[in-house]
From TrEMBL:
Domain CASTOR ACT: 11-78, 201-262
One of the protein's GO biological processes: negative regulation of TORC1 signaling
Gene symbol of the encoding locus: Castor1
Subunit structure and binding partners: Forms homodimers and heterodimers with CASTOR2. Interacts with the GATOR2 complex which is composed of MIOS, SEC13, SEH1L, WDR24 and WDR59; the interaction is negatively regulated by arginine. Interacts with TM4SF5; the interaction is positively regulated by leucine and is negatively regulated by arginine.
Family: Belongs to the GATS family.
Alphabetized Pfam families for the sequence: ACT_7, CASTOR1_ACT-like
A GO CC term assigned to this protein in UniProt: cytosol
Entry keyword Membrane: no
GO molecular-function term, one example from the UniProt record: identical protein binding
Keyword match Iron: no
Name of the protein: Cytosolic arginine sensor for mTORC1 subunit 1
Function text: Functions as an intracellular arginine sensor within the amino acid-sensing branch of the TORC1 signaling pathway. As a homodimer or a heterodimer with CASTOR2, binds and inhibits the GATOR subcomplex GATOR2 and thereby mTORC1. Binding of arginine to CASTOR1 allosterically disrupts the interaction of CASTOR1-containing dimers with GATOR2 which can in turn activate mTORC1 and the TORC1 signaling pathway.
Domain Cytosolic arginine sensor for mTORC1 subunit 1/2 ACT-like: start-end pairs: 116-199
Signal peptide feature range: none
Amino acid sequence: ELPPSEFMQVADSTWLVLSVVSNGREPPGCQATGVTKIARSVIAPLAEHHVSVLMLSTYQTDFILVRERDLPVVIHTLAGEFDIYKEESGECVPVTCDDVSNGFLKPKPTASPTLHPVQSPQTRFCVLTVAPDTLPAIATMLIDVLFYSHSPPWDAATGSQDLDSISFFSFSLIEGYISIVMDAETQKRFPSDLLLTSSTGELWRMVRIGGQPLGFDECGIVAQIAEPLAAADISAYYISTFNFDHALVPEEGIAEVIQLLQQRQESSR
């Protein structure tokens, strides 16, 4: 419904959303298995079959977005490990390989994926949720942060931004559940009694992937981060965006994460 505009860039592909749960169906209150838990069983196999994915972690669960045209490859790749369902009229209906076999082509081998540089700003982040009925109370503040608290100008000449204090704010509303990521300084502007976080109130540090916009045709970007973190049993909150990918990890583990990723890059040279 958005009107065409010279200021709005739209990716060519249409994407489908996958969610992974531990028992194949999602009863009330069931939590998804998390990006580090599904690294080997979902993210790595899809990367090996040259399927580009976007990751979207939220306060409640994690989602994997795949291009609609890649669905036959996705089904064939994951059917051996998972029971796969599609939603029809609010009901979960089993999906088999035969349902999507039309047009399935075995992917051709390609060169090893590019290992993109990773950068870690000093900014500390909070992962929060808000009860939907309290959203109007912070609506004005949300609008101010989203549209009027702009980040420092991006330096087109050097192709970089000052990552010592990166500006990052994420708001998602999915099936009535709200998830927000904001830096610790921005959090102070909101009423503390309306923002809900984990009982530990932990802070997160960010690893940003890519020195320039990544595009959507390359595969293995999420796997580059998720696989070594999964091997070290480090949890991560992962958000793919139009230009870059971002992984949030617990603040106390950032040094280990940077070391792991640097070792991975050095071993691949």
